[in-house]
Design brief:
The protein has 6 helices and 8 strands; from the N terminus they run H-H-H-E-H-E-E-E-H-E-E-H-E-E. With 175 residues, the protein is an alpha/beta fold. It folds into 2 domains: 3-124, Alpha-Beta Complex (endopeptidase fold (from Nostoc punctiforme)), CATH 3.90.1720; 132-174, no CATH class. The strands form 2 sheets. Strands 1-5-2-3-4 form a 5-stranded mixed β-sheet, sandwiched between helices. A 3-stranded mixed β-sheet has the order 6-7-8.
Length: 175
């Protein structure tokens, strides 16, 4: 997913869903992207994501989170009592800023985000393909997914690839 597609999902979700609380908005946006967000109230989501062990969500700096959003990667700022979805910086197709969706730019005061910890969805990192991931080595990929790269998922076939630090890719399909 590129940044325009990413922002399009956010913008259309905001237009068509009339939801008041930030967690439900984030949940709906990420559902529309195929991105998992933990179940529970905002405190439970915060506690789960901060473990750095939930379905690809990894902690990062505020700058890394915005850079990821600018590449079309799901990114959030979260605290024990609120969550914001980071939209991509795009002058041609900006997303309407709300209490629940922001772009970290010069218009956002540091005070308004000082309580947030930032995360990006690591499983969306590679080359605009939400099914790709970037690994430093084959061992790192095998350590994360195991040595058998064949998975059953709803009886469907999906092509996955892993990009290693040397730029080479390993392709496989899910059966």
């Amino acid at each position: 997913m590129n940044k325009k597609q990413y922002n399009n999902v956010i913008e259309n979700t905001l237009k068509h869903e009339h939801i008041d609380d930030s967690l439900s908005i984030a949940r709906t946006i990420f559902h529309n992207m195929g991105v998992a967000l933990p179940q529970g109230d905002i405190r439970t989501v915060y506690e789960t994501v901060k473990t750095d062990n939930y379905m690809g969500w990894k902690s990062c700096t505020m700058q890394e989170a915005q850079a990821a959003a600018n590449k079309g990667v799901a990114s959030i700022g979260i605290s024990e009592d609120r969550i914001v979805v980071l939209s991509a910086t795009d002058e041609e197709q900006p997303v309407t800023k709300t209490v629940s969706v922001i772009t970290l730019d010069e218009n956002v005061s540091e005070d308004s985000i000082s309580d947030l910890t930032f995360y990006q969805y690591a499983n969306m990192r590679s080359g605009g393909n939400q099914y790709g991931a970037t690994w430093s080595s084959l061992d790192a990929a095998m350590n994360y997914y195991g040595t058998d790269f064949t998975y059953t998922y709803c009886g469907g076939y999906y092509n996955y690839y892993y990009t290693f630090s040397d730029g080479s890719r390993m392709y496989f399909r899910v059966e």
